[in-house]
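pipeline/complex-builder :: batch 7 item 3
reading input block
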Amino acid sequence: MLSPELASDLRAARPVASLGLRERVLEIAARERPAPKPRFSLPSFRRLALVAVPAALTVAVGGALIHGLAGSGSNGQKAAPASTSAGSNGTAVGASRAPKLPRTLQLGKEPDSAVAPSSSRLQQYGAFLSLRVKDLGALSDATKRAMRLARDVGGYVAYVRYSSPSHGRGSASLIVRVPVDRVQDVIAEYSDLGTILSQKINIVDVTKAVEEQAREIARLQAQIAQIEGGGVTPQERYRLAELKARLDYLTKHRAATVRRAQFARVSLELATKPKHRAAASTSRFDRTMGDAGGVLLREAEILLYVLIVAGPLLLLGGAIIAAGRFRDRRLFERT
Amino acid sequence: MNAKQQSFAAIAERHLDDVLAYLVYLTADHTLAEDLTVDTFERALRRWRRFDPRRGSARTWLCQLARSAALDHFRSEARRLRREDRYAVRELREVHPPSFGEGLSPELEHAVGALSRAEREVVALRVVLELDGETAAKVLGISQSACSTRLSRALQKLEGMVSAHAVA
């Protein structure tokens, strides 16, 4: 510790401002203007943090709880997000989307509302249906019924997959080809197998393509007849083989296009209720807590994402500040 | 009457000597300290509306501003020296012996001059201006214990040099 004598020596000899310096400083001070009344003053960072952090937490948790309460419903039954959409390719038909469809509004009940294939034109008709069935027993029945129905109308099953893993959940996928004039009936029957979750219909008009192919075939046939009629020279032999190959390809391609237009492709996805949906009979409190937990989890994900994105910048900022402080310390270590 | 209710002129008048003393100890150059004192009060006037007496006294605030002004000067000086070194046009500057006040014994003057800037400023704040440990630490931007350690080291050096000079 410094001796009192030295300390008092230092205090007694402390530098005092000269008259010139005093005048310069007072000149500066004379420039002071009366301060306008502040409309509001910002609180200190610490006070702001003391309020802002609990407020943000309250908003996050409150928002999650409100979402949970609003989303839990009173009877434990949430409407299934069923939808029907019709899309098209080529000569398009209109597309529509209904967010919620009651089970009764199915294509089979109101065939006129569905997109029907045209009887006067060649169209490749594709339909996709996603249905939910009650349980594994219903899944098995629905799969068998769908396969039988396809055969009954003169179609065939192109693909089938049936799986019933543990925990009471199961699913089945079918692709059937049915005569296009019976596709409406098939869709109507399939709609009866469960609750519609989603539905898509796709129609591609191939009339023009088939007509063009027919014209091309006729032209090729005429060319071949002309060459063969005049006697085939060795030079023409290769050309003739080429024309015949092209004719063969076009004929087969046209036949396949027509065949595809005669048979509609119907994809059917069947699934039992998800486990948490099956447990929908739990209390409203449980559902609220579950939903709120989901929202909180989402908020935590967002926070984590922000931290990951901002982390390198924060680290860089910290490093710059640390470097600045180190440099300042070096400056102060000098005599 | 709190500091905010007083006029800036009154505050300047009251704490001018404190600011100057602190800067003289920090820079060990009376002329530079005077220039930095003017700079400090310029800064203080610009920020006077933002001064919040609840967060510290006017003297503490002015010392913080003085330190910031000195730090800016040291930085620019260091840059200038680097630049001059690079182009080898460094002029021989006239070096004034440091003066830390009228009437200080030569051995004490020499001992204070031999301290580092960091040590001198802690002596200025704690011994000359008689600030308490908490306020001094706040001005220096370090913890109270770091401030105490620095002060203890500085005083030990000072005592050692003064007594060595006396023996010699």
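note: Confidence is low (pLDDT under 50) at residues 75-113 of chain A.
queue -> next item
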